[in-house]
Amino acid sequence: MHIGSPLEEEPVTRNNADTDDDADGTLDIDDAWSLDACADTDSDGDGYPDSIVDGCTTTLTEDQDDDNDGYADSADAFPLDDAEWHDTDGDGIGNNADDDDDGDGVNEGADVWPLNECATTDTDGDGMPDSTTMSPCGATIDATSFEGASTGGQYTDTGDSTLNHTLANNAGEADVNFSPTTDDGFESGDFSGMSFTNDATYPWVIDSTSSNSGMYSAMNDAVPAGGGTGDLSLTIDTVSGDISFAYRASVESGWDYLRFYVDETLDAQWSATDTGWNSHSTSVSSGTHTFTWRFYRDSCCSGGANTVWLDDISIPTSSELGYTASYISTGGVGLTNDYFGVTD
Known about the structure:
Jelly Rolls; six-stranded antiparallel sheet; mainly beta; 0% helix; five-stranded antiparallel sheet
């Protein structure tokens, strides 16, 4: 028997009538987790929330790639736009839509260096820009040192300033070559190009069946269907600049991944039946960094070839020259300025 009138009982709003069941401020109709106050949004529909309320207890795992474009939110200039991830010139327009990625006033179709604001034209097609004095790059450097100039100690420009910038070296001296990066395309047929640390349990191997360029790449198909990870890591001193590499992933889409970490922080990840060969780059600061490429498989199922590949790694490791790397010919004689000699 009830005591008193129902009008005396405290009213209760039940879930069927409540438009915000978890009272998180987001209406149920707009809340991907209407019964969990810790999260409400899943932009890419992958079952992982874009963010979790600080200090909130939940079984959910926060999404590291909200738009599911293969670029971690921390490295994505547009974390909620799956069609954009880089904005080289910082103008708010992603590189894919931007007609002038480097913001130098010359559209990509006419710009030989579409990602370098310091140069645009190469009249003679020798890989060196006609001018190195474009704003905001400052005045052209008029001298720099080269350890290679060991015989006579000087290189002299013999080029036509309107056409090319060829440097002639003294007899017995090597061509002027300088690369500000450390590169490895695994063309040695092993891992000797850099001081890699290879996973002991599920190691990477050299592969000749698929490569981005040349004959070889690094590959991992060793992680079993029962799950696990296979890491290839490299600890190296860098200068401020961009690390780049080519990758391919043929895995169970949405469950298994090729992941790239910078100092143990996820920078980007890829998961598809076959991504094909693509390239990725990310900026690093000057200092000692650890780069890790990880093949991750969950505890169930298979997809694609269950294999990931890596090729054409390039890491910024020297700032001996005080201007941008694309000003240097890394394959033959030449610097870009037409009116200076180089002394050691």
